[in-house]
Amino acid sequence: MITPPLDKDMNLEPTLEGRTRLMHIVQEYTDNFLDTLSEQKAYQGDKYNKVPQDSDFYIDEDITGLKDLLGLLHDRVDQPGLNPASGGHLGYIPGGGIYTAALGDFIAAVTNRYAGVFYASPGAVRIENALIRWAGNLIGYKKNFAGNLTSGGSIANLTALAGAKTAHNIKSRNIENSVIYTTKQTHHSVLKALRLLSLDECVLRYIPTDIQFKMQVSELENQIENDRQLNLSPFLVIANAGSTDVGATDDLQRIAAICTKQNLWLHVDAAYGGFFMLTEHGKKKLKGIELADSVVLDPHKGLFLPYGTGIVLLKQANHLLNTFSYSPSYMQDAKDYEQELSPMDLSPEMSRNFRGLRMWLPLKIHGVKPFEMCLNEKLELMRYFCESIQKLGFELGHTPDLTVAVYRYNPQKTDRDTFNRNVLKKIHDDGKVFISSTNIDGAFWLRIAILSFRTHKREIDILINTLRELIESDI
Fold first, then answer.
1. pLDDT at 8
2. For residue 337, is it within any domain?
């Protein structure tokens, strides 16, 4: 005998009245969050960080009302720490999370389309493939390319480098003789991907950078030639199109020419910088990206989508298929319906949500132009910020390629690193805006990343005025 659920459990399928009531409570909460964003702090630190582990988050047999749960989220989740939705978040390359993307997530979660296999949901797969075609065309790929919507740059880098490993037939027998080239500006997710793929057993060459933190192409060429003389096998170059640390963009065109000549795979990490290809400035800075064998972009950065949206593109689709495509017997029914490539065959994931809707819906509702305009605004804000702080006496670490910069103040009476650490602490304590810091060649630098679609001149002026007050007070 099958035992039916208890009455109290029947709310797993709420009625229309129940859904309407729940949605009203949630919408009231989210509307209040958005309507008060300009009054909220971008960062709230110490007093929340010192709260002990919270038993209210534990799962037990107790039932809690939605309003009480949202109150808990407000106090313990949405208040402490960073507020990435805030226009004052100027620290870690934020995206902001546009509202129409959240609507896409809601629809995708309710309808629960499985977007891994064409046979299971032709429409969902077609939407995701259309997004891949658009992104590929944006960077200059023409045909025969493929890609995948991932959970972010980390999995996108892992996917791309797995494709490179397969394409160059890197096996245990030749891995220690194979050589990878990159710079110290390479994001740690790339290094993590190398480790996961056992490519950390390759010879890893860090090519020196110039004063703008760009790879010195002549040094790359010399190192490749030297390695060949040592009977090593160069196979991979990893370049940046907007490094996370300082926003540096390597000379992709010259690097690509060397890779073509030497038959090396060129991977470009454009997670942060890639969508600046929507702007004329970005097209100039990223010239040559279309020559790369693989490229990573993050829509949750340059398209302002919620966290959890990355894209990997490979110039030749067969490299992804050769790496990830399998045909399990229980999926044999799908073979007769494969009119387009399935995401399952192009990435490590099989069970995956319909994440393309959070990107497709905003692009269809708003069009592409507003995204281009937002990115151009951020470029202008960066120019304005750099000009303003230099007038205050701050030193720029480099000329920004895009919208990330490092800077510091050189006080006459105090140790430089100590002074700038105090500046950072005061800004964090205040919380109206949030900035970060980095360490370059043993020196402490302040760091700004302007990318949120909610960041405007108002937020930049708050930071500039705060910096002015701090140096005038000598902290």
1. 53
2. yes
List pLDDT tens digits, range 309-324: 999 999 999 999 999 9
Q: Quick check: is 105 in a domain? A: no
Identify the H or E element spanning 20. Answer: helix 16-35
Distances from the Cα of 221 to the Cα of 179, 180, 207, 243, 456, angstroms: 13, 13, 10, 21, 42
Same domain, 295 and 154: yes
CATH number at residue 289: 3.40.640.10
- Return the structure tokens found at 198: 């056992």
CA distance 227 to 382: 40
- One-letter identity of residue 104: G
| Mean pLDDT, range 397-409, rounded to an integer | 97
**Predicted pLDDT of residue 60:** 86
Instruction: Give the start-end residues of each E strand in 190-300.
Output: 203-206, 233-240, 265-270, 294-297
Give the residue among 339, 323, 357 at the shortest CA–CA distance from 117.
339
The closest alpha carbon to 353, from 175, 134, 39, 127, belongs to: 127
Q: Are residues 71 and 219 located together in one domain of the fold?
A: no
Q: Helix, strand or coil for residue 410?
A: coil
User: What are the tens digits of pLDDT across the range 55-95?
Assistant: 788 888 888 899 999 999 999 899 999 999 999 999 998 77
Res 221: pLDDT? 98
